[in-house]
């Protein structure tokens, strides 16, 4: 391009603009060759407090797309080139709807995302209105698939299941009679905390305090001091690791001697690295079986580390699976047109690296397993896997 | 009672952190009448530089306090260069422009700094090494650790030092002169550009100190840490009377106390009707009430005591 004459460049530019205006609805085909260009949209927070987890999502998605391109997949006789359009939703519900519209306008064939429940839910309406299938790797709030949208799927067990497992485990196995709950007021944190409370109450525990924070806070001394006065056996936090780390550190600093439990938002290597000694004994859950028991988990994490020179943070394998499930459905339908492959996606059966993926009528993962972990000697150790096809106990 | 005392301590520590950052806002506003919205990001850069330096030195066997001191000096130097550059590039060309223009460049600078830090230090959270002594002490049933005591002392010392500088030195007199009337000061032989540059550099050095204190307290640093902190500190500065050094301290402490007492007691006092997520609402409610009755803030007087 650099050696083209300016007038020629201009002509090309105008031609391209005109072509773009003329282009028929789905999916964008490159005009010259018989190669088929399929755009996949992805969205996660790439800036802000959760950027490290968001980038991890993007990495997992990008890896699956690179591998699919290397494989040379063909749809209706044409060689397909997948292109990732990755957007930053800042974990913010408002930004998420703007990003969603932008992806729709870019004529993507499918969406991998968003990372948070708070962003996936408002964005799902836009994707549904435009008939574009959306697979969230990590949105776990019950509401996401309960809105009746045919286009909304997820490859992870929801908070109804997760909160129940956590609440029962806290009340029964950990014998926590008095429980304090903190949530970050996001769709995820609030939803998970509500399910946790329901299950804990049903199992005979007592909720002695319910405090709130937000997803940008770093100082929790005030709520922790107030909680300390109620002498709980266990503190449950519905939120992500950027808050989980200072929370557990400040708990220890204030000598609030209670067990500390989080959902999937806390299950990261960063939590241990940053909280150091304070992380010891922390409980967290993650939908799915432990990575080394995932059908293709070992190989995946090795490839991921080789490609990105860093360990998996959290949801990268789920993003990887989400892309592959979507491509598998496209191959079944022999088309990347949303209307054609959506029915195939709904009834797909796919062996991913995280689990065998099939969806129920709502778009939830069928028989999703949930594993409970605890930090022991500076490492996440699986304690128990519930549901799914995995063995019941894995000590 | 021990819980009440603990909440007071929480509030004082949090408030001192706000005050440390607020001093930087107030210095610049006092001289220029300009809100340097990039200040929060300079705090973050200070923390990040200190992190890099201390990680570099920590294996060398130097005593932790010396490592911290070197990290502090390097961070302060980097921030001072940065502060000078920001003023030179983003504010000085607009000194006679409408007031809105430098406000916009300030926001622009903070976005640039934040993204620059994201590129250099990455998106991850980093653990800040524990260089300050942080064993905790029991005080009448409440717990306070050494880092927190140091934060309160440093904030107080910084404020006192700045007060001395502004009211007792030649430079301070020049600052007050420029604050009152730059052109008259220039006629009296004061170089306003030099004074303004020095003010920015001092504000930036303060930011480096604040960044290190915040990081030492929470033990984590992240490229995003400056924005919320900057916003809260700005609120504190306005509450106390922006442009007034004692006001920054008072506003910071007050905001810290309102937040911690608010978060600690709202739920119980209202029978769970208002939860602890209303702490910011109450903090801003107090701000509004103060501004209605004292538009210049608690200690804000026109001209009289501007830094």
* Largest beta-sheet details of chain A: 7 strands, mixed
> In the residues of chain A, how many domains can be counted?
2
The largest sheet of chain A has its strands arranged as: 8-7-9-10-11-14-15
Distance between the ends of chain A: 60 Å
- Low-confidence blocks of residues of chain B: 303-307
Which fold name corresponds to the CATH topology of the largest domain in chain A?
Rossmann fold
The portion of residues forming beta strands of chain B comes to under 5%
- pLDDT averaged residue by residue of chain B: 89
Give a brief rundown of this model.
The complex is a heterodimer of chains A (about 400) and B (about 300). With about 400 residues, chain A is an alpha/beta fold.
Written overview of the protein:
The complex is a heterodimer of chains A (395) and B (307). Chain A is 42% helix and 20% strand. Chain A is an alpha/beta fold and 395 residues long. Chain A has two domains: 6-157 and 295-357, Response regulator (Rossmann fold), CATH 3.40.50; 160-287 and 370-386, 3-Layer(aba) Sandwich (Rossmann fold). In chain A, helix 2 packs parallel to helix 12 (316-333), helix 3 runs parallel beside helix 4 (117-129) and helix 6 crosses helix 7. The longest helix of chain A has 21 residues, at 51-71. The termini of chain A are far apart. The longest helix of chain B has 31 residues, at 2-32. With 307 residues, chain B is mainly alpha-helical. In chain B, helix 2 (39-57) packs across helix 9 (225-240), helix 5 (146-168) packs across helix 6 and helix 10 (245-269) packs across helix 11 (279-293). The model of chain B is unreliable at 303-307 (pLDDT under 50). In chain B, strands 1-4 form a two-stranded antiparallel sheet.
């Amino acid at each position: 391009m650099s050696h083209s004459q300016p007038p020629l460049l201009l002509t090309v530019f105008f031609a391209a603009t005109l072509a773009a205006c003329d282009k028929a609805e789905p999916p964008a085909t490159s005009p010259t060759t018989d190669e088929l260009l399929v755009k996949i949209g992805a969205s996660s927070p790439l800036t802000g407090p959760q950027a490290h987890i968001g980038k991890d999502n993007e990495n997992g998605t990008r890896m699956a797309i690179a591998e699919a391109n290397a494989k040379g997949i063909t749809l209706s006789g044409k060689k397909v080139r997948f292109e990732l359009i990755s957007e930053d939703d800042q974990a913010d519900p408002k930004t998420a709807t703007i990003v969603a519209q932008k992806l729709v306008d870019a004529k993507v064939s499918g969406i991998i995302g968003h990372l948070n429940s708070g962003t996936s839910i408002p964005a799902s309406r836009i994707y549904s209105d435009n008939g574009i299938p959306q697979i969230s790797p990590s949105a776990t709030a019950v509401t996401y698939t309960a809105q009746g949208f045919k286009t909304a799927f997820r490859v992870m067990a929801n908070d109804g299941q997760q909160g129940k497992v956590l609440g029962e485990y806290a009340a029964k196995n950990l014998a926590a009679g008095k429980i304090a709950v903190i949530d970050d007021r996001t769709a995820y944190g609030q939803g998970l905390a509500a399910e946790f409370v329901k299950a804990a109450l049903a199992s005979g525990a007592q909720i002695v305090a319910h405090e709130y924070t937000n997803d940008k806070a770093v100082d929790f001394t005030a709520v922790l001091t107030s909680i300390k006065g109620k002498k709980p056996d266990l503190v449950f936090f519905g939120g992500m690791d950027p808050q989980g780390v200072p929370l557990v550190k400040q708990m220890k600093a204030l000598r609030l001697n209670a067990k500390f439990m989080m959902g999937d938002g806390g299950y990261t290597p960063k939590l241990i690295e940053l909280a150091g000694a304070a992380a010891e004994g922390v409980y967290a859950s993650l939908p799915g079986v432990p990575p080394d028991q995932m059908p293709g988990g070992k190989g995946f994490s090795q490839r991921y580390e080789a490609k990105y020179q860093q360990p998996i943070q959290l949801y990268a394998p789920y993003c990887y699976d989400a892309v592959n499930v979507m491509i598998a459905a496209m191959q079944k339908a022999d088309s990347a047109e949303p209307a054609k492959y959506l029915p195939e996606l709904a009834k797909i059966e796919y062996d991913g690296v995280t689990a065998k993926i099939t969806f129920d009528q709502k778009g939830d993962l069928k028989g999703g397993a949930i594993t409970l972990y605890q930090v022991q000697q500076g490492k996440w150790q699986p304690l128990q896997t519930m549901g799914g096809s995995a063995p019941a106990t894995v000590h | 009672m021990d819980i009440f005392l603990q909440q007071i301590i929480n509030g004082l520590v949090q408030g001192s952190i706000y005050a440390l950052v607020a001093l930087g806002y107030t210095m610049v506003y006092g001289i220029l009448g300009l809100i340097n919205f990039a200040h929060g990001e300079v705090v973050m850069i200070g923390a990040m530089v200190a992190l890099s330096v201390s990680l570099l030195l920590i294996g060398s066997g130097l005593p932790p306090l010396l490592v911290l001191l070197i990290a502090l000096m390097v961070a302060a130097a980097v921030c001072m260069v940065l502060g000078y550059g920001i003023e030179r590039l983003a504010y000085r060309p607009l000194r006679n422009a409408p007031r809105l223009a430098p406000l916009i460049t300030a926001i622009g600078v903070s976005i640039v700094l934040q993204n620059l830090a994201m590129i250099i230090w990455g998106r991850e959270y980093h653990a800040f090494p524990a260089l300050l002594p942080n064993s905790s002490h029991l005080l009448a049933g409440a717990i306070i650790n050494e880092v927190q005591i140091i934060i309160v002392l440093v904030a107080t010392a910084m404020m006192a030092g700045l007060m001395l500088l502004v009211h007792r030195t030649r430079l301070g007199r020049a600052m007050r002169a420029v604050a009152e009337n730059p052109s008259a000061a220039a006629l009296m032989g004061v170089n306003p550009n030099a004074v303004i540059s020095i003010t920015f550099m001092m504000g930036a050095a303060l930011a480096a100190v604040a960044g290190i204190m915040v990081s030492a307290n929470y033990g984590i640093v992240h490229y995003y840490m400056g924005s919320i902190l900057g916003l809260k500190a700005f609120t504190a500065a306005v509450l106390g009377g922006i442009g007034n050094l004692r006001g920054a301290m008072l506003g910071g402490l007050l905001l810290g106390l309102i937040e911690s007492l608010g978060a600690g007691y709202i739920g119980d006092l209202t029978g769970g009707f208002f939860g602890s997520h209303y702490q910011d609402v109450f903090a801003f409610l107090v701000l509004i009430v103060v501004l209605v009755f004292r538009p210049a803030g608690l200690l804000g007087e026109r001209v009289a005591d501007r830094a």
